[in-house]
Amino acid sequence: MTLSIYIARRFFWTVARVFLIFFGILMLIDMIEQIRRFSGAGIGLSQAMGLSLMNVPETLYRVLPLILIIGSIAMFLGLARSSELVVVRAAGRSGLRFLLTPLVVAVALGLVTVAVFNPIVAATTKQYDLARAKLSNGGGSVLSVADTGLWLRQGGDDGQTVIQASRSNPDGTELFGVTFLQFDATGLPAARIEAETAKLEAVGWVLSGAKQWDLTATNPEQTATRAATTLTLPSDLTAERIRDSFGTPSAIAFWDLPAYIDGLERAGFSARAYRLWFQMELAQPLLMAAMVLVAAGFTMRHTRFGGTGQMVLYAMLTGFAIFFLRNFAQALGDSGQIPIAVAAWSPPLAAVLMSLGLLLHLEDG
Questions:
Q1: Same-domain check for residues 103 and 218
Q2: Which residue of 10, 221, 270, 295 is surrounded by the most CB atoms within 10 Å?
Q3: Domain count of the chain?
Q4: What angle do CA 192, 193, 194 make, to 5 degrees?
């Protein structure tokens, strides 16, 4: 028990040191980038640091598997150089049994990452997007999905228009059961339009079955008019802009993803990317365990056998290969080329099986 606690504590603090080193490097790089990007807005060093503190967690979250494999390699090399691995084996503990403690810590770190760090990253990403939009003199996201349906916002020379629809087609260019609420330049309601359908075309929104109310009139209901054919409303929205307004799945907290997915599907949008991200988050602890096994398979050996640098290189290359294979599988799953479960679970599962095969060969081969 004492040995297990010692190994767990050493593994945790080694990974924590690597995490802090990555955090410091990414902060410096991102601060320089923020100063360059918003030089026209005249931001100072403190503002750049604030933006970086909101932006860096997302990058750290994405490279956590790489941080874990580097930390694992560092720990196993430290134990090998101090001959502690030799002492542990001489005491009768096999290499596979020795690995149980780092694996438990890695899985625990994966669970904490998904349950705690993921919502923090989602919150900081949203705050960064808002701050970036403010500095860029632009608006925030033009699209929002809620229990009441789909909400859009568009601008114009005369003011803003808020659009609410019960559902839409997958790319948001055709709305059903839609309401347009137009505001004038002072922010006061100017008109309301209800339509059965609204289709986004080059000329703007083309409305069918539309009824219009003039909200500046004394009695808007008496002056309401119904369009005989179709009604066209100018719009600065495009299909690309609506699609980009969804942002990335990582901007949604893990605990909020199921409700968000249901809302997207009720609104008529495809939630495949969000379902895939949810499954990948569930597979995160297994990926963390796979990275520890990969590091152990190449570096859990005594330094007297030589070739330590070569083994470290092999471990790093294998870790990067698994990381990029996971991203490649995500792209295939997002495009519908492979099932979501295969895209999310096959890379970490394959890494675990490959590493266990290597370890069994080395221990019992």
A1: no
A2: 295
A3: 2
A4: 130
